[in-house]
From TrEMBL:
It comes from Cryphonectria parasitica (strain ATCC 38755 / EP155). Residues 154-243 form the DUF8004 domain. InterPro entries: DUF8004. Pfam families: DUF8004. It comes from the Eukaryota. Residues 485-524 are annotated as: Disordered. This is DUF8004 domain-containing protein.
Length: 630
């Protein structure tokens, strides 16, 4: 199967340096010849006429530490007496190719032996392709180490320490590790490599090893790429005007003052990003990508709004909480954010509500206590507040945040938001002639209005910039990583029943870049797969209507109860002895005594060459202290 394995095609894969170079040191590898080596490894049968010396000179102690006794038992030169071994200060291992192997298979077998010794010493791998080299290494570990060892765990530790798991901007490496993960069914590694392959899918046709990846995985890559581009296009249009259409009058019912405040806050955010990116909306990533922005734009905005969400969120309220029976009036925040999630088929966040300011004030007058709808969330009409009241209102806003999380204050958008809130309270009343002066809103309701934009922006950005948790390296990449992993890994679905293909089962055209005309349209895929709503969402997401939440019945029937609804990889080395010659003699004596007492094992199978396995109310009322019905 596949192309012949030729020595001239061998390459050395340096994980840390992220490089690949030609390699031709199989018969004598300086990288695996050590001055203290007391185990000589020959890549031919004892007695075979050869002018070649030992290919590798390694330490017996390192082989024992790596639990590689089966390797020494199988290939030890038993014709050498103990006295001769003591005198020479070494033992010899003769490793001929399997008798039935052809020339290409023999070369592949010896490369696997070399890579096994490279793993023992933490050196770089060699081979025709990285994935094939790693697969051959695992087969060597299975055959030449003691039984009962978790070789996959040790392999992953080695790959991590050697730098091979860093797949950023390395399509050949991502494809190779995807191949490995598929053969040994390593789920986390598969999703990590799969995500990078989707992000770099237009480069995969240049990777010969893509032919070793199963048909199911190649289909999943193309499908995930089309889905990602569709979501990016749609989200880019939404972000271009900062959700002006999604939060318009046709979707969210706001008063004139609330609408004016939302527009002012949106303009402020637009100015912030115009300064940050040089223009807003930012220019397209590439002419053929249409409205899609550069990857760093989505990442930066998502981190900004995540920090702002965490700065404002009320962590004491969750989506599974039961709602108290009394309403206090104001904007229906909970219903508004749930309706946004329902329209865009998004999973609601666990904490959907913001912290709201509470004034430390004197007892309200009898008239205000009897007419609470005349006051805002702070207990006064803002247009008539005195300077000391405005400072108190600003202090209340600061208290109604999670500023105890100091890391949030390192975010520029959070700092800009603090300035906006301060100006909106302390400077608001000096702006005579503005329309907002005619339609003032309470400080609490203003926080709710701003929360609608913050929550909706964060949810929108998560749909295209949320990276699968299995991806270990996400910074400094020049492609998108917001990939859907639906249907992965393929061996857990019916679609993934096919084994990895051979080289002649793949057409390179599958991954060639396509012209813009052949790309999937925006309307061809949904923003996200519909999510099954939770108990509380089930009632809200069915025919919900956004309404002001002042509950006059609750205000006049506070005593009546209301029904509530549901709710390590380096191999250890023995310490050096004071006498170098004594240590060598003891090592040889120990190894020979072990082999002298061990009965000859049945011949273990040689390395498999190219053996890669292949009737309730429609919308129940919700009332929450300080938030109203929502």
């Amino acid at each position: 199967d596949g192309k012949p394995f030729r020595q001239q095609s061998l390459k050395r894969f340096d994980g840390a340096a992220r490089s690949c170079s030609s390699w031709d040191n199989l018969t004598k590898d300086p990288e695996l010849c050590f001055r203290n080596g007391n185990c000589y490894v020959y890549l031919y049968e004892k007695g075979q006429s050869s002018r070649q010396g030992a290919a590798y000179e390694v330490s017996i102690d390192r082989l024992f530490a790596a639990q590689a006794r089966p390797l020494m038992e199988k290939f030890l030169d038993r014709s050498m007496s103990e006295e001769t071994a003591y005198r020479k200060g070494r033992i010899d291992l003769y490793v001929p190719a399997p008798p039935t192997a052809n020339r290409s298979q023999a070369l592949q077998y010896h490369v696997a032996i070399r890579n096994f010794l490279a793993w023992v010493y933490g050196r770089s791998l060699v081979g025709d392709h990285l994935g094939n080299a790693i697969i051959g290494l695992v087969h060597s570990m299975d055959e030449f180490r003691d039984p009962g060892i978790d070789n996959i765990r040790d392999l992953l530790n080695y790959l991590d320490q050697a730098g091979y798991l860093d797949m950023r901007n390395q399509p050949h490496r991502a494809v190779g590790l995807l191949h490995v993960a598929e053969v040994f069914q390593i789920e986390n590694l598969y999703i990590d490599a799969f995500t990078h392959c989707v992000g770099m899918s237009e480069r995969l046709y240049k990777c010969p090893e893509i032919s070793c990846v199963s048909i199911a995985s190649r289909k999943l890559i193309k499908r995930a790429r089309a889905d990602m581009e569709s979501r990016l296009r749609r989200v880019s249009i939404m972000l271009s005007d900062l959700l002006e259409e999604e939060l318009s009058e046709s979707h969210v019912g706001l008063s004139m003052g609330e609408r004016a405040h939302l527009n002012g806050f949106r303009s402020y955010i637009r100015g912030f990003y115009r300064t940050k990116f040089g223009s807003f909306p930012p220019p397209p990533w590439h002419p053929r990508c249409g409205t899609i922005f550069r990857p760093e734009v989505y990442t930066a905005m998502k981190e900004d709004f995540k920090a702002l969400y965490e700065y404002l969120v009320d962590e004491n309220f969750t989506t599974v909480d039961n709602s108290p029976p009394v309403a206090h009036g104001g904007l229906c925040t909970l219903q508004s954010v749930y309706e946004f999630d329902r329209r865009h088929e998004l999973a609601a966040l666990e904490h959907p509500l913001p912290l709201l300011p509470e004034m430390r004030r004197a007892k309200l007058s009898r008239r205000r206590s009897l007419m609470p709808w005349l006051v805002d969330g702070l207990g006064f009409r803002e247009s008539r507040t005195r300077p000391d009241q405005r400072h108190s209102a600003h202090a209340a806003l600061l208290r109604a945040t999670n500023q105890g999380k100091a890391h949030l204050l390192d975010n520029e958008l959070v700092l800009a938001y603090q300035r906006f809130e301060e100006d909106s309270v302390l400077l608001h009343h000096h702006r005579k002639g503005e329309r907002v002066e005619k339609c003032p809103i309470g400080t609490g309701d203003a926080r709710k209005v701003r929360w609608l934009l913050v929550y909706a922006m964060y949810q929108t950005l998560r749909t295209c910039a949320e990276v699968p948790k299995e991806v270990t390296s996400v910074t400094d990449v020049d492609y998108h990583l917001g990939v859907s992993t639906k249907g992965t890994p393929p061996w857990q679905t019916e679609e993934g029943a096919d084994p990895p293909p051979t080289l002649n089962r793949w057409n390179a055209d599958d991954f060639r870049p396509r012209t813009p005309q052949r790309r999937q349209s925006i309307s061809a895929a949904p923003l996200l797969t519909p999510v099954k709503p939770s108990k509380i969402e089930s009632g809200l997401h069915t025919g919900m209507e956004i309404q002001p939440d002042i509950d006059y019945f609750a205000l006049t029937h506070r005593g009546e109860s209301r029904a509530q609804h549901g709710h390590d990889g380096q191999i250890a080395v023995l310490p050096r002895s004071k006498s170098h010659s004594l240590r060598r003699t003891m090592s040889i004596r120990r190894s020979l005594s072990v082999f002298r007492t061990v009965s000859q094992r049945p011949s273990t199978s040689h390395l498999a060459v190219s053996a890669y396995p292949e009737c309730k109310p429609m919308h129940p009322e919700i009332s929450i202290p300080r938030y109203g019905t929502g």
